[in-house]
TrEMBL record, chain A:
It is found in: Cell membrane. The keyword Cell division does not apply. Its main location: membrane. It holds the Pfam family BPD_transp_2. This is Branched-chain amino acid ABC transporter permease. It is a multi-pass membrane protein. GO terms for cellular component: plasma membrane. InterPro entries: ABC_transp_permease, LivM-like. It comes from the Bacteria.
UniProtKB/TrEMBL annotation, chain B:
One of its GO terms (biological process) is amino acid transport. GO terms for molecular function: transmembrane transporter activity. Keywords: Amino-acid transport, Cell membrane, Membrane, Transmembrane, Transmembrane helix, Transport. It comes from the Bacteria. It comes from Micromonospora globbae. The chain crosses the membrane at residues 12-30, 60-80, 92-110, 141-160, 189-210, 222-250, 262-280. The keyword 4Fe-4S does not apply. It is a multi-pass membrane protein. GO terms for cellular component: plasma membrane. It is found in: Cell membrane. Its main location: membrane. This is Branched-chain amino acid ABC transporter permease.
């Protein structure tokens, strides 16, 4: 973490072309309007959907933003982020059950545990790049899954942790509708933290590493340490989502650690748009809503649909929703100026 | 001593499956720079193919051993032409994601048709019972698997090192641009090589059918262990992938036998080995360093 403090001022250097900066270049009123629309949508959400689905959307939004922080802004595709999401879910659940703390404290404990777990995994994983990074993170996440599966005295194995309480200073949060508003501030804080990281000098260095690692190293940046820091921060944010997911469902099962969960997080990011940050939020809303609708209509082969969407998105729609919208808006903007 | 040999033998047998799968992954990666997430799903399809041929058409094991890998190889070639081919010029991550999507689809298709329970597949009668190789009785079928897998690995090695086809594939793996410049049509070999790698996965699946439970998720967790195996061996190295496959099989079997109080050891030892290899030789035991990053 110390490396982030003494980052040389880098803002004067011409920035690399990336999705990140096009958002910053949009006129101020557009950005404020989008922010206002997002906040209104977040406040309205549980009135338009089942509150339980809205809770899931918020958790997955954090998860997707965490994955995009690595994939979109550091150029590292983690295919093992279920390790942090799931580890935090278990730790949050255990803390909430045994210590009886208010749920934000339990979630914070879970997210910190996820960040601690991210240190050794990240340390080893950043030794490789590209496709190898994906395979290594996937493998370590599977190891965490096996450990959780065997460590039955703590994780209850296949039965899962049941009865995770939603305590908050005696408030009655048993209704998902009220719980949604109780967790919303934590989610917004997490999203704001991700935005702050991306738009800090530290975030600029990450993008520089993504676009040209050799040059970043030649400029004197400790590339591995930057990647590791990004990995740990991402693990923490994913952990916030996982902890809230545990409290939201009042139940933690081994599914939270399975590789399909890691894969789904990447699906959500690609659908929303890699390197767009908020695209992941949209992707999360769509995928969670769709899965809910499918299971509601008793359609059992959910993988068939998510897999199919994934194949189509990767083949035909690689910019994702946010990326495509951004490109359209930019074209409209420049044509108007002429 | 007998116990040790028995454990070693069992380790080599499960290593044979890792080796066959890692070999297919490595061949595909070498030619296409694609890490095929769906490799485990094709292994599962191989086992299901044998099962379906036997139960619905009465095709015996020996015929399935030929028909299923060829059929899956053709299916793989079709998928390569239809999808994977379109993404090979992009970052390899896109094909990783694409094949991840294909995995979910293939698994769920089989699940829809056959459910999630395991289906039994009888060991072919010629390979039932056991053989005595001096020290103790080996189950005949396992001896067959081990011998067959070693034979396949040697055959692939011979194909790559002693034939003109192998020369082209190796050249295209090392320096695709230069190979093209010599007037060799590299693109012509991409699809067959992909099909060949898928065929190997299918072959491993047919071999697994009588020994392991045939169910739609049998390849799901296996493929991740195989990923760790190829990271250990070095994905660019054919020999490394095969050697790491057998090696991990051995270590797992020994762990299972001598640390049976800690079942977690044999499940996670492959990932611990991977961590050590990443610390010591990040490019894998037999791999070469990729471009610095």
């Amino acid at each position: 973490m110390t490396s982030t403090v003494d980052t040389p001022a880098d803002a004067t250097r011409p920035a690399p072309p990336s999705g990140l900066l096009t958002v910053a270049r949009a006129p101020g009123w557009v950005r404020y309007a989008l922010l206002a629309a997002g906040l209104i949508a977040a406040l309205w959400l549980p009135n338009g959907l089942y509150p339980a689905v809205a809770v899931d959307i918020l958790c997955w939004a954090l998860f997707a933003v965490a994955v995009d922080l690595l994939l979109g802004f550091t150029g590292l595709m983690s295919f093992g982020h279920a390790a942090f999401w799931g580890a935090s879910a278990y730790v949050t659940g255990l803390v909430a059950i045994h210590a009886g703390l208010p749920f934000p404290a339990a979630v914070l404990a879970g997210a910190l545990a996820a960040a601690v777990l991210a240190v050794p995994i990240g340390y080893l994983a950043v030794k490789r790049t590209g496709i190898y990074f994906a395979m290594v993170t996937l493998a370590f996440a599977q190891m965490v899954y096996y450990v959780a599966n065997e460590w039955r005295s703590v994780t209850r194995g296949e039965n899962g942790l049941q009865g995770v309480p939603r305590s908050l200073f005696g408030l009655d949060l048993s209704d998902d509708y009220y719980f949604y508003y109780a967790m919303l501030p934590i989610v917004l804080l997490g999203l704001a933290a991700a935005w702050r990281i991306v738009h800090s000098p530290f975030g600029r260095v990450l993008v520089g590493i993504r676009d040209n690692p050799a040059r970043a190293r030649a400029l004197g940046y400790p590339v591995h340490r930057y990647k590791l820091t990004a990995f740990v921060l991402s693990g923490f944010i994913a952990g916030l989502g996982g902890g809230l997911f545990a409290v939201g469902h009042r139940f933690v099962s081994l599914d939270v650690l399975h590789w399909t969960t890691s894969g789904k997080a990447v699906v959500v990011v690609v659908l929303g748009g890699i390197g767009t940050l908020w695209g992941g939020v949209l992707g999360a809303a769509l995928v969670v809503r769709l899965e809910d609708w499918l299971s509601f209509s008793n359609f059992e082969a959910i993988g068939l649909v998510t897999g199919g969407i994934f194949v189509l998105v990767v083949l035909l729609f690689r910019r994702g929703i946010w990326g495509s919208a951004e490109a359209l808006a930019r074209r409209w903007w420049t044509s108007r100026k002429r | 001593m007998t116990g040790f040999l028995q454990n070693t033998f069992n380790g080599l047998v499960s290593g044979a499956f890792y080796a066959l799968l890692a070999l297919g992954l490595a061949v595909i990666f070498g030619m296409l720079r694609v890490v095929n997430f769906a490799h485990g799903a094709f292994y599962m399809l191989g086992a299901f193919g044998a099962y379906v041929l036997l139960t619905e058409a009465g095709v015996p094991f020996w015929a399935a051993l030929v028909i299923v890998p060829v059929g899956l190889g053709l299916l793989g070639m079709a998928l390569e032409r239809a999808f994977i081919h379109r993404l090979t010029r992009l970052d390899p991550l896109y094909n990783f994601l694409l094949t991840f999507g294909l995995t979910l689809i293939l698994q769920d298709l089989v699940k829809l048709r056959y459910g999630v329970q395991s289906s039994p597949y009888a060991t072919p009668s010629a390979l039932g019972g056991s053989v005595n190789l001096g020290l103790f009785d080996f189950p005949t079928y396992r001896v067959f698997i081990l011998g067959f897998a070693v034979l396949v690995c040697v055959a692939v090695w011979w194909l790559l090192s002693h034939t003109r086809l192998g020369m082209v594939v190796r050249a295209a793996t090392e320096r695709p641009e230069l190979t093209r410049a010599f007037g060799i049509n590299v693109g012509r070999w991409v699809t067959p090589v992909f099909g060949f790698g898928i065929g190997l996965a299918g072959l491993a699946g047919v071999l697994a059918a009588p020994m392991r439970a045939v169910n739609p998720l049998m390849g799901a967790d296996l493929i991740i262990v195989v990923f760790a195996v190829v990271v250990i061996g070095g994905l660019g190295s054919i020999f490394g992938s095969v050697a790491a496959g057998f090696g991990i099989g051995l270590v797992q079997a020994w762990g299972e036998a001598y640390l049976s109080d800690f079942p977690i050891v044999s499940q996670t030892v492959v990932f611990v080995v991977m961590a050590v290899v990443l610390l010591w030789r990040p490019a894998g035991l037999f791999g070469r360093e990729e471009a610095p990053a």
